[in-house]
Design brief:
binds flavin-adenine dinucleotide, D-Amino Acid Oxidase, Chain A, domain 2, globular, 457 residues, 6-stranded mixed beta sheet, single chain, alpha/beta, FAD/NAD(P)-binding domain, 7-stranded mixed beta sheet
Length: 457
Protein backbone atom coordinates (compact mmCIF):
# COMPACT_ATOMS: atom_id res chain seq x y z
CA UNK A 1 0.00 0.00 0.00
CA UNK A 2 2.78 2.39 0.95
CA UNK A 3 5.15 1.17 -1.76
CA UNK A 4 5.35 4.41 -3.70
CA UNK A 5 5.22 6.73 -0.72
CA UNK A 6 8.17 8.82 0.23
CA UNK A 7 9.29 10.32 3.50
CA UNK A 8 12.07 12.73 4.36
CA UNK A 9 14.31 12.57 7.41
CA UNK A 10 16.50 15.45 8.51
CA UNK A 11 19.66 14.23 10.26
CA UNK A 12 21.51 10.93 9.77
CA UNK A 13 22.61 10.57 13.38
CA UNK A 14 21.58 7.63 15.51
CA UNK A 15 17.81 8.21 15.45
CA UNK A 16 17.60 9.32 11.81
CA UNK A 17 19.58 6.33 10.54
CA UNK A 18 17.59 3.79 12.55
CA UNK A 19 14.28 5.39 11.61
CA UNK A 20 15.19 5.24 7.91
CA UNK A 21 15.55 1.45 8.19
CA UNK A 22 12.21 1.03 9.93
CA UNK A 23 10.47 3.09 7.24
CA UNK A 24 12.24 1.18 4.47
CA UNK A 25 10.95 -2.04 6.03
CA UNK A 26 7.45 -0.62 5.63
CA UNK A 27 8.14 -0.12 1.93
CA UNK A 28 8.80 3.61 2.03
CA UNK A 29 11.36 5.37 -0.11
CA UNK A 30 13.38 7.38 2.38
CA UNK A 31 15.52 10.44 1.72
CA UNK A 32 17.82 11.45 4.56
CA UNK A 33 19.43 14.92 4.57
CA UNK A 34 22.52 15.21 6.77
CA UNK A 35 24.52 18.37 7.43
CA UNK A 36 27.86 16.60 7.91
CA UNK A 37 29.92 14.75 5.33
CA UNK A 38 29.66 10.96 5.16
CA UNK A 39 31.43 9.70 8.31
CA UNK A 40 32.14 6.42 6.51
CA UNK A 41 34.39 8.23 4.02
CA UNK A 42 35.88 11.07 6.01
CA UNK A 43 37.33 11.45 9.45
CA UNK A 44 34.21 13.27 10.55
CA UNK A 45 33.84 14.09 14.20
CA UNK A 46 31.11 11.66 15.25
CA UNK A 47 29.74 14.33 17.54
CA UNK A 48 29.26 14.15 21.24
CA UNK A 49 30.86 11.26 23.13
CA UNK A 50 33.00 8.52 21.63
CA UNK A 51 31.17 5.60 23.15
CA UNK A 52 27.73 5.10 24.60
CA UNK A 53 25.90 2.68 26.86
CA UNK A 54 23.30 0.62 25.03
CA UNK A 55 20.55 -0.99 27.09
CA UNK A 56 17.39 -3.05 26.61
CA UNK A 57 15.21 -0.33 25.06
CA UNK A 58 17.79 0.45 22.40
CA UNK A 59 18.39 -3.24 21.76
CA UNK A 60 14.66 -3.85 21.19
CA UNK A 61 14.57 -1.15 18.54
CA UNK A 62 17.69 -2.51 16.83
CA UNK A 63 16.10 -5.96 16.86
CA UNK A 64 12.92 -4.62 15.29
CA UNK A 65 15.02 -3.09 12.51
CA UNK A 66 16.82 -6.45 12.18
CA UNK A 67 20.25 -4.88 12.65
CA UNK A 68 21.06 -6.05 16.15
CA UNK A 69 23.07 -9.08 15.06
CA UNK A 70 25.49 -6.91 13.08
CA UNK A 71 25.92 -4.48 15.98
CA UNK A 72 26.52 -7.22 18.55
CA UNK A 73 30.21 -7.86 17.75
CA UNK A 74 31.00 -4.23 18.62
CA UNK A 75 29.38 -4.37 22.07
CA UNK A 76 31.40 -4.64 25.29
CA UNK A 77 29.26 -5.81 28.22
CA UNK A 78 29.36 -3.79 31.44
CA UNK A 79 27.99 -5.84 34.33
CA UNK A 80 28.21 -3.08 36.91
CA UNK A 81 30.03 -0.08 38.33
CA UNK A 82 33.65 -0.39 39.35
CA UNK A 83 34.05 2.30 41.99
CA UNK A 84 37.43 3.92 42.49
CA UNK A 85 37.34 5.35 45.99
CA UNK A 86 39.35 8.27 47.31
CA UNK A 87 41.44 6.01 49.54
CA UNK A 88 42.56 4.03 46.47
CA UNK A 89 40.33 1.03 47.16
CA UNK A 90 37.98 -0.32 44.51
CA UNK A 91 34.61 -1.94 44.76
CA UNK A 92 32.36 -3.62 42.19
CA UNK A 93 28.58 -3.04 42.27
CA UNK A 94 26.51 -5.13 39.87
CA UNK A 95 23.86 -3.20 37.94
CA UNK A 96 21.25 -5.90 38.03
CA UNK A 97 19.99 -8.62 40.29
CA UNK A 98 20.32 -11.22 37.54
CA UNK A 99 23.40 -12.30 35.66
CA UNK A 100 22.07 -11.35 32.25
CA UNK A 101 21.21 -7.83 33.41
CA UNK A 102 24.11 -5.94 31.88
CA UNK A 103 24.47 -2.87 29.69
CA UNK A 104 26.84 -2.52 26.76
CA UNK A 105 29.48 -0.02 25.75
CA UNK A 106 29.45 0.72 22.06
CA UNK A 107 31.27 3.06 19.68
CA UNK A 108 28.95 5.88 18.62
CA UNK A 109 30.50 6.22 15.18
CA UNK A 110 30.74 2.44 14.68
CA UNK A 111 27.03 2.13 15.44
CA UNK A 112 26.06 5.09 13.27
CA UNK A 113 28.06 3.79 10.30
CA UNK A 114 26.57 0.31 10.60
CA UNK A 115 23.06 1.76 10.71
CA UNK A 116 23.76 3.77 7.56
CA UNK A 117 25.13 0.69 5.79
CA UNK A 118 22.09 -1.34 6.80
CA UNK A 119 19.78 1.46 5.63
CA UNK A 120 21.41 1.62 2.21
CA UNK A 121 21.29 -2.15 1.87
CA UNK A 122 17.49 -1.99 1.95
CA UNK A 123 17.72 -0.33 -1.47
CA UNK A 124 15.13 2.22 -0.38
CA UNK A 125 17.17 4.72 1.64
CA UNK A 126 19.25 7.49 0.07
CA UNK A 127 21.51 9.69 2.19
CA UNK A 128 22.31 13.23 1.06
CA UNK A 129 25.41 14.27 2.99
CA UNK A 130 26.60 17.86 3.33
CA UNK A 131 22.95 18.89 3.03
CA UNK A 132 22.01 21.15 5.93
CA UNK A 133 18.48 22.03 6.87
CA UNK A 134 18.28 25.83 6.99
CA UNK A 135 14.79 26.14 8.36
CA UNK A 136 11.08 25.70 7.88
CA UNK A 137 8.87 27.98 5.79
CA UNK A 138 5.56 27.28 7.47
CA UNK A 139 3.61 29.68 5.22
CA UNK A 140 4.63 27.80 2.09
CA UNK A 141 4.87 24.39 3.82
CA UNK A 142 8.48 23.91 2.81
CA UNK A 143 11.63 22.61 4.48
CA UNK A 144 14.70 24.43 3.21
CA UNK A 145 17.90 22.50 2.60
CA UNK A 146 21.24 23.91 1.53
CA UNK A 147 23.54 21.55 -0.37
CA UNK A 148 27.34 21.61 -0.56
CA UNK A 149 27.19 23.95 -3.58
CA UNK A 150 25.14 26.36 -1.47
CA UNK A 151 22.06 25.79 -3.55
CA UNK A 152 18.73 25.73 -1.79
CA UNK A 153 16.50 22.71 -2.18
CA UNK A 154 12.89 22.87 -1.04
CA UNK A 155 11.14 19.80 0.36
CA UNK A 156 7.41 19.62 0.85
CA UNK A 157 6.62 19.71 4.55
CA UNK A 158 4.78 16.44 4.40
CA UNK A 159 5.78 13.39 6.45
CA UNK A 160 9.06 14.90 7.52
CA UNK A 161 10.96 13.58 10.54
CA UNK A 162 13.27 15.99 12.33
CA UNK A 163 16.16 13.93 13.72
CA UNK A 164 18.60 16.82 13.73
CA UNK A 165 19.74 16.48 17.31
CA UNK A 166 19.80 18.61 20.43
CA UNK A 167 20.47 21.90 18.61
CA UNK A 168 17.67 21.19 16.08
CA UNK A 169 17.25 24.04 13.61
CA UNK A 170 13.78 22.73 12.86
CA UNK A 171 12.73 22.89 16.51
CA UNK A 172 14.10 26.40 16.88
CA UNK A 173 12.27 27.60 13.75
CA UNK A 174 8.97 26.08 14.83
CA UNK A 175 9.38 27.58 18.30
CA UNK A 176 10.13 30.99 16.79
CA UNK A 177 6.86 30.71 14.86
CA UNK A 178 4.89 29.73 17.98
CA UNK A 179 4.07 26.29 16.62
CA UNK A 180 5.99 24.52 19.40
CA UNK A 181 6.86 25.64 22.87
CA UNK A 182 10.25 24.83 24.25
CA UNK A 183 12.55 25.26 27.22
CA UNK A 184 16.25 24.41 27.23
CA UNK A 185 17.78 23.98 30.68
CA UNK A 186 21.54 24.01 30.66
CA UNK A 187 23.37 22.39 33.53
CA UNK A 188 26.11 24.43 35.18
CA UNK A 189 28.33 21.37 34.78
CA UNK A 190 30.27 20.41 31.65
CA UNK A 191 32.27 17.41 30.45
CA UNK A 192 35.57 16.58 28.82
CA UNK A 193 36.68 13.32 27.22
CA UNK A 194 40.09 11.72 27.74
CA UNK A 195 41.62 8.36 26.83
CA UNK A 196 43.18 5.39 28.58
CA UNK A 197 44.86 3.55 25.70
CA UNK A 198 45.36 -0.22 25.54
CA UNK A 199 48.69 -1.42 26.98
CA UNK A 200 51.63 -2.46 24.81
CA UNK A 201 50.01 -5.85 24.22
CA UNK A 202 46.68 -4.36 23.21
CA UNK A 203 45.13 -5.34 26.56
CA UNK A 204 42.80 -3.38 28.82
CA UNK A 205 44.56 -1.58 31.67
CA UNK A 206 41.52 -1.85 33.97
CA UNK A 207 38.72 -4.38 34.40
CA UNK A 208 37.02 -4.58 31.01
CA UNK A 209 33.43 -5.49 31.82
CA UNK A 210 32.52 -2.52 33.98
CA UNK A 211 31.67 1.14 33.86
CA UNK A 212 34.37 2.70 36.03
CA UNK A 213 33.44 5.62 38.27
CA UNK A 214 35.56 7.87 40.43
CA UNK A 215 32.75 9.52 42.45
CA UNK A 216 33.91 12.64 44.23
CA UNK A 217 30.74 14.35 45.45
CA UNK A 218 30.38 17.43 43.27
CA UNK A 219 32.17 15.92 40.28
CA UNK A 220 33.19 12.57 38.87
CA UNK A 221 35.27 10.77 36.32
CA UNK A 222 33.85 7.79 34.45
CA UNK A 223 35.35 5.33 31.96
CA UNK A 224 33.63 3.08 29.42
CA UNK A 225 35.54 0.28 27.64
CA UNK A 226 36.03 0.36 23.87
CA UNK A 227 36.41 -2.85 21.86
CA UNK A 228 40.09 -2.13 21.07
CA UNK A 229 41.44 -2.35 24.62
CA UNK A 230 41.13 1.36 25.35
CA UNK A 231 38.73 3.23 27.63
CA UNK A 232 37.09 6.57 27.01
CA UNK A 233 37.11 8.65 30.16
CA UNK A 234 34.71 11.50 30.77
CA UNK A 235 35.27 14.10 33.45
CA UNK A 236 32.02 15.73 34.59
CA UNK A 237 32.37 18.75 36.84
CA UNK A 238 31.02 22.23 37.48
CA UNK A 239 31.95 24.86 34.92
CA UNK A 240 32.82 27.38 37.62
CA UNK A 241 33.83 27.58 41.25
CA UNK A 242 35.93 25.33 43.42
CA UNK A 243 36.90 22.21 41.47
CA UNK A 244 35.37 23.72 38.35
CA UNK A 245 36.71 23.66 34.79
CA UNK A 246 37.46 27.36 35.09
CA UNK A 247 40.12 26.59 37.69
CA UNK A 248 42.08 24.17 35.52
CA UNK A 249 43.85 26.82 33.51
CA UNK A 250 47.45 25.59 33.45
CA UNK A 251 49.28 22.29 33.03
CA UNK A 252 50.32 22.47 36.64
CA UNK A 253 46.77 22.93 37.87
CA UNK A 254 45.48 20.07 35.72
CA UNK A 255 48.24 17.72 36.95
CA UNK A 256 47.73 18.71 40.55
CA UNK A 257 43.99 18.22 40.25
CA UNK A 258 44.39 14.68 38.89
CA UNK A 259 47.12 13.89 41.45
CA UNK A 260 44.87 15.00 44.27
CA UNK A 261 41.58 13.45 43.15
CA UNK A 262 42.27 10.68 40.63
CA UNK A 263 45.86 9.58 41.40
CA UNK A 264 45.34 6.04 40.09
CA UNK A 265 44.57 7.38 36.60
CA UNK A 266 47.78 9.37 36.15
CA UNK A 267 49.83 6.49 34.84
CA UNK A 268 46.98 5.32 32.66
CA UNK A 269 46.41 8.55 30.70
CA UNK A 270 49.69 9.24 28.93
CA UNK A 271 48.34 12.22 27.01
CA UNK A 272 46.42 13.80 29.84
CA UNK A 273 47.69 17.35 29.42
CA UNK A 274 47.50 17.39 25.66
CA UNK A 275 44.01 15.88 25.58
CA UNK A 276 42.81 18.15 28.35
CA UNK A 277 43.87 21.19 26.39
CA UNK A 278 42.74 19.99 22.96
CA UNK A 279 39.45 18.28 23.72
CA UNK A 280 36.46 20.57 23.93
CA UNK A 281 34.35 21.14 27.01
CA UNK A 282 30.94 19.73 26.14
CA UNK A 283 27.72 21.31 27.34
CA UNK A 284 25.03 19.36 29.17
CA UNK A 285 21.37 20.15 29.28
CA UNK A 286 17.76 19.11 28.91
CA UNK A 287 15.47 20.09 26.07
CA UNK A 288 11.73 20.19 26.80
CA UNK A 289 9.41 20.59 23.81
CA UNK A 290 5.66 20.47 23.42
CA UNK A 291 4.02 19.22 21.29
CA UNK A 292 6.44 17.00 19.43
CA UNK A 293 4.85 17.58 16.04
CA UNK A 294 3.63 20.22 13.62
CA UNK A 295 0.16 19.07 12.52
CA UNK A 296 0.54 15.94 10.39
CA UNK A 297 3.46 17.48 8.52
CA UNK A 298 6.46 17.05 10.73
CA UNK A 299 7.45 15.03 13.79
CA UNK A 300 10.46 15.55 16.05
CA UNK A 301 12.25 12.34 16.98
CA UNK A 302 15.16 11.85 19.38
CA UNK A 303 17.30 14.63 20.84
CA UNK A 304 15.67 17.23 18.56
CA UNK A 305 12.79 17.45 21.02
CA UNK A 306 14.06 15.79 24.18
CA UNK A 307 17.84 15.85 24.62
CA UNK A 308 18.68 14.84 28.19
CA UNK A 309 21.75 14.77 30.39
CA UNK A 310 23.75 11.55 29.90
CA UNK A 311 23.76 10.23 33.46
CA UNK A 312 21.27 7.42 32.96
CA UNK A 313 22.74 6.44 29.58
CA UNK A 314 19.29 6.78 28.06
CA UNK A 315 19.47 9.57 25.45
CA UNK A 316 20.13 7.24 22.55
CA UNK A 317 18.08 4.45 24.10
CA UNK A 318 15.05 6.71 24.41
CA UNK A 319 15.61 8.05 20.88
CA UNK A 320 15.64 4.49 19.59
CA UNK A 321 12.52 3.79 21.62
CA UNK A 322 10.91 6.79 19.86
CA UNK A 323 11.53 5.01 16.55
CA UNK A 324 9.98 1.82 17.87
CA UNK A 325 6.93 3.58 19.30
CA UNK A 326 6.45 5.42 16.01
CA UNK A 327 6.65 2.14 14.12
CA UNK A 328 4.06 0.58 16.44
CA UNK A 329 1.73 3.56 16.04
CA UNK A 330 2.00 3.39 12.24
CA UNK A 331 0.94 -0.22 12.49
CA UNK A 332 -1.88 0.47 14.93
CA UNK A 333 -3.37 3.45 13.10
CA UNK A 334 -2.77 2.00 9.63
CA UNK A 335 -0.55 4.95 8.79
CA UNK A 336 -3.14 7.62 9.56
CA UNK A 337 -0.55 10.37 10.05
CA UNK A 338 -2.76 12.74 12.00
CA UNK A 339 -3.49 10.10 14.61
CA UNK A 340 0.06 8.78 14.60
CA UNK A 341 1.65 12.19 15.16
CA UNK A 342 -0.84 13.21 17.85
CA UNK A 343 -0.59 9.93 19.72
CA UNK A 344 3.18 9.89 19.51
CA UNK A 345 3.36 13.38 20.90
CA UNK A 346 1.04 12.69 23.84
CA UNK A 347 2.56 9.32 24.73
CA UNK A 348 6.22 10.23 24.32
CA UNK A 349 5.97 13.63 25.97
CA UNK A 350 4.98 11.96 29.26
CA UNK A 351 7.74 9.42 28.98
CA UNK A 352 10.59 11.65 27.85
CA UNK A 353 9.86 14.16 30.60
CA UNK A 354 10.12 11.31 33.11
CA UNK A 355 13.46 10.02 31.83
CA UNK A 356 14.77 13.61 31.74
CA UNK A 357 14.04 13.88 35.45
CA UNK A 358 15.53 10.48 36.27
CA UNK A 359 18.66 11.30 34.25
CA UNK A 360 19.22 14.46 36.29
CA UNK A 361 18.71 12.53 39.55
CA UNK A 362 21.16 9.87 38.45
CA UNK A 363 23.99 12.42 38.28
CA UNK A 364 23.79 12.71 42.06
CA UNK A 365 23.60 8.94 42.42
CA UNK A 366 26.72 8.43 40.30
CA UNK A 367 28.89 11.21 41.60
CA UNK A 368 27.86 10.98 45.26
CA UNK A 369 25.27 8.50 46.56
CA UNK A 370 27.21 5.42 45.40
CA UNK A 371 29.84 6.32 48.02
CA UNK A 372 27.50 5.99 50.97
CA UNK A 373 26.55 2.94 53.02
CA UNK A 374 22.83 3.78 53.07
CA UNK A 375 22.77 3.67 49.25
CA UNK A 376 24.12 0.11 49.34
CA UNK A 377 21.72 -0.96 52.05
CA UNK A 378 18.74 0.40 50.08
CA UNK A 379 19.99 -1.23 46.91
CA UNK A 380 20.34 -4.58 48.72
CA UNK A 381 16.87 -4.24 50.22
CA UNK A 382 15.44 -3.41 46.77
CA UNK A 383 17.12 -6.47 45.27
CA UNK A 384 15.78 -8.66 48.05
CA UNK A 385 12.29 -7.34 47.40
CA UNK A 386 12.67 -8.02 43.68
CA UNK A 387 13.73 -11.60 44.45
CA UNK A 388 10.80 -12.19 46.82
CA UNK A 389 8.07 -10.23 45.00
CA UNK A 390 9.16 -10.25 41.34
CA UNK A 391 5.68 -9.57 39.98
CA UNK A 392 5.42 -6.33 41.93
CA UNK A 393 8.83 -4.94 42.67
CA UNK A 394 11.68 -4.16 40.25
CA UNK A 395 14.36 -1.64 41.29
CA UNK A 396 14.05 1.62 39.38
CA UNK A 397 17.45 1.34 37.70
CA UNK A 398 16.44 -2.10 36.39
CA UNK A 399 13.04 -0.85 35.19
CA UNK A 400 14.84 1.80 33.12
CA UNK A 401 17.73 -0.28 31.84
CA UNK A 402 16.53 -3.88 31.60
CA UNK A 403 12.83 -3.58 30.78
CA UNK A 404 10.62 -1.37 28.63
CA UNK A 405 8.07 -0.23 31.19
CA UNK A 406 7.05 3.28 30.02
CA UNK A 407 9.36 5.81 31.67
CA UNK A 408 6.48 7.77 33.22
CA UNK A 409 5.25 4.61 34.91
CA UNK A 410 8.80 3.77 36.01
CA UNK A 411 9.04 7.19 37.61
CA UNK A 412 5.74 6.78 39.49
CA UNK A 413 6.47 3.24 40.63
CA UNK A 414 10.03 4.26 41.50
CA UNK A 415 8.82 6.93 43.92
CA UNK A 416 6.45 4.51 45.66
CA UNK A 417 9.16 1.87 45.86
CA UNK A 418 11.68 4.36 47.26
CA UNK A 419 9.29 5.14 50.12
CA UNK A 420 8.75 1.45 50.83
CA UNK A 421 12.49 0.75 50.82
CA UNK A 422 13.18 3.73 53.07
CA UNK A 423 10.57 2.53 55.56
CA UNK A 424 11.92 -1.01 55.57
CA UNK A 425 15.54 0.11 55.84
CA UNK A 426 15.02 2.06 59.05
CA UNK A 427 17.04 0.66 61.95
CA UNK A 428 18.58 -2.24 60.03
CA UNK A 429 22.14 -2.77 58.85
CA UNK A 430 21.71 -5.64 56.39
CA UNK A 431 18.94 -6.46 53.92
CA UNK A 432 18.19 -9.84 55.53
CA UNK A 433 17.09 -8.02 58.70
CA UNK A 434 14.16 -6.55 56.81
CA UNK A 435 10.63 -7.21 58.06
CA UNK A 436 9.41 -9.14 55.00
CA UNK A 437 5.88 -9.60 56.32
CA UNK A 438 5.55 -5.84 56.51
CA UNK A 439 7.28 -5.60 53.11
CA UNK A 440 4.66 -7.83 51.52
CA UNK A 441 1.79 -5.85 52.90
CA UNK A 442 3.31 -2.49 51.91
CA UNK A 443 4.08 -3.70 48.41
CA UNK A 444 0.70 -5.27 47.74
CA UNK A 445 -1.10 -2.29 49.21
CA UNK A 446 0.79 0.35 47.24
CA UNK A 447 1.90 -1.30 44.01
CA UNK A 448 0.04 -2.95 41.16
CA UNK A 449 1.56 -6.00 39.51
CA UNK A 450 3.94 -5.03 36.69
CA UNK A 451 2.31 -5.65 33.32
CA UNK A 452 4.27 -8.56 31.85
CA UNK A 453 4.09 -7.05 28.37
CA UNK A 454 6.58 -4.41 29.55
CA UNK A 455 9.11 -6.91 30.81
CA UNK A 456 12.13 -8.19 28.93
CA UNK A 457 11.45 -11.74 27.88
C1 LIG B 1 28.65 12.95 26.80
C2 LIG B 1 27.45 12.21 26.33
C3 LIG B 1 27.32 10.88 26.63
C4 LIG B 1 26.20 10.17 26.22
N1 LIG B 1 26.09 8.86 26.57
C5 LIG B 1 24.97 8.18 26.25
C6 LIG B 1 24.83 6.82 26.63
O1 LIG B 1 25.71 6.24 27.25
N2 LIG B 1 23.68 6.17 26.29
C7 LIG B 1 22.69 6.79 25.61
O2 LIG B 1 21.65 6.15 25.36
N3 LIG B 1 22.79 8.08 25.22
C8 LIG B 1 23.91 8.78 25.52
N4 LIG B 1 24.04 10.08 25.12
C9 LIG B 1 22.94 10.71 24.37
C10 LIG B 1 22.99 10.41 22.87
O3 LIG B 1 24.22 10.89 22.36
C11 LIG B 1 21.86 11.10 22.14
O4 LIG B 1 20.66 10.94 22.82
C12 LIG B 1 21.70 10.56 20.71
O5 LIG B 1 22.85 10.85 19.97
C13 LIG B 1 20.46 11.15 20.05
O6 LIG B 1 20.40 10.76 18.71
P1 LIG B 1 19.82 11.77 17.63
O7 LIG B 1 19.88 11.06 16.33
O8 LIG B 1 18.53 12.32 18.10
O9 LIG B 1 20.84 12.99 17.62
P2 LIG B 1 22.33 12.98 17.08
O10 LIG B 1 22.95 11.66 17.27
O11 LIG B 1 22.97 14.18 17.66
O12 LIG B 1 22.16 13.18 15.49
C14 LIG B 1 21.71 14.38 14.93
C15 LIG B 1 22.17 14.42 13.47
O13 LIG B 1 21.58 15.53 12.82
C16 LIG B 1 22.57 16.21 12.07
N5 LIG B 1 22.16 17.60 11.95
C17 LIG B 1 22.18 18.57 12.92
N6 LIG B 1 21.69 19.71 12.43
C18 LIG B 1 21.35 19.48 11.13
C19 LIG B 1 20.79 20.27 10.11
N7 LIG B 1 20.51 21.58 10.30
N8 LIG B 1 20.56 19.71 8.91
C20 LIG B 1 20.85 18.39 8.69
N9 LIG B 1 21.39 17.60 9.63
C21 LIG B 1 21.63 18.13 10.83
C22 LIG B 1 23.84 16.02 12.89
O14 LIG B 1 25.00 16.22 12.08
C23 LIG B 1 23.68 14.59 13.35
O15 LIG B 1 24.17 13.67 12.41
C24 LIG B 1 25.17 10.81 25.49
C25 LIG B 1 25.30 12.17 25.18
C26 LIG B 1 26.42 12.86 25.59
C27 LIG B 1 26.53 14.30 25.28
Amino acid sequence: MSKHKKINIIGAGLAGSLLSILFAKRGYKVHVYERAADMRLDEVDAGRSINLALAHRGIRALQKAEVFERIKPMMVPMAGRQLHNEDGSQQFQAYGNKRHEVIYSLSRSGLNKELMNAAEETGLVTFYFSHACMGVDTKRNKILISNSANETIELDAEHVFACDGAGSKIRRDLVAQDILSNRDELLDHAYKELTIPADDHGEYQMIREALHIWPRGQYMLIALPNDDGSFTLTLFMPKHGENGFNELTSEEKISNFFKAHFPDTLELIPNLLQEFKENPEGILGTVYTNPLHWQDKLLLVGDSSHAIVPFHGQGMNSSFEDCLVLDELLEKHTENWTQVFQQFSIQRKRDVDAIAEMALENYITMRDSVRHADFHLRKDVAWELETRFPEYFIPRYSMVMFHHIPYALVFRRGNIQADIVAELSENIKEAYECDFVKAESLIKERLEKVDSKHLAS
